[in-house]
Design a protein that fits this description.
About 35% of the residues lie in helices and about 20% in strands. The chain is of the alpha/beta class.
């Protein structure tokens, strides 16, 4: 096991850069914190570059109760100092284990008769993003397309809110117009959450596969590109005492309703 004690160490400086979107983009890596996210990464076979902890024996022993020691030893473990741990941590509660993992997001995606896409068009709030990713996994939308102006899905707050949902989803990103053009070629029905004169109640939508459910920015809603590509505008029927829902909540309701149609 490697031991690093100084925050001036070159590798530590690279790890710290992963706390920024620019650093993650440059290295094509991201940093996770806590035993739960590491457990999910191990369980799903993510490409883990480093595992760092200031309590190496205890942490390794805990994971050895669930995973073969030979498997665990195939990763690079680093015993870090308390000073480094504090520099890397993004949480108030000490979770004492970190991992550096290879990003998994592509410009490519596939479409088939069973495809169910969650399209996130300008989602900016990390909590909303994490909630939507968890709901996508829960309700069978395993392909997620992200517009370029979305919050970074490897932001630490998104990762914590997602609680490991990242490892059960296929992520793609790119130009929205190009994305919708391919969906149209493949006969995918595009549902957008928008209030128009043609909007239908979300509980009346057919939700037959293949489909794409588009959720828009917290303040602006879906973009003009998404509105143009839309086949159906849907809205959630609500009491007149409130006019809108948080996008994380609204999206979760729609994903659930769509999951009822097999």
């Amino acid at each position: 096991m490697i031991e690093i004690t100084s925050i001036q160490n070159a590798q530590v400086k690279q790890w710290k850069k992963l706390k920024t979107a620019k650093g993650r983009r440059q290295q094509s890596l991201y940093l996770v914190e806590g035993p739960h996210l590491l457990d999910e990464a191990l369980k799903t076979g993510q490409k883990i570059e480093w595992i760092m902890t200031s309590q190496a024996e205890e942490v390794f022993s805990n994971f050895a109760q669930k995973y073969d020691e030979e498997v665990l030893n195939s990763y690079r473990w680093v015993h870090i100092s308390e000073e480094i741990r504090k520099e890397l941590s993004a949480t108030v509660t000490d979770q004492n284990v970190f991992a550096v993992i290879e990003k998994s997001i592509s410009q490519d995606f596939t479409v088939d008769a069973k495809s169910r896409f969650l399209v996130l068009d300008g989602i900016q709030d990390p909590g909303n993003m994490g909630t939507l990713l968890r709901s996508a996994v829960a309700f069978g939308f395993h392909q997620v397309f992200l517009s370029p102006d979305c919050v970074d899905i490897y932001n630490d707050k998104v990762l914590r809110s997602g609680q490991g949902a990242h490892y059960y989803l296929q992520f793609s990103t790119g130009d929205l117009e190009t994305f919708y053009a391919k969906l149209k070629e493949e006969g995918v029905v595009v549902y957008t959450t928008a209030l128009t004169k043609d909007s239908i109640s979300s509980d009346q939508a057919s939700y037959r596969s293949p489909l794409a459910l588009v959720l828009g920015n917290e303040g602006k809603g879906v973009s003009k590109v998404s509105q143009t590509a839309s086949d159906k505008n849907i809205l959630i029927p609500m009491s007149t005492s409130i006019d809108s829902l948080n996008v994380g909540v609204a999206g979760s309701i729609l994903l659930y309703q769509a999951s009822l149609v097999k």
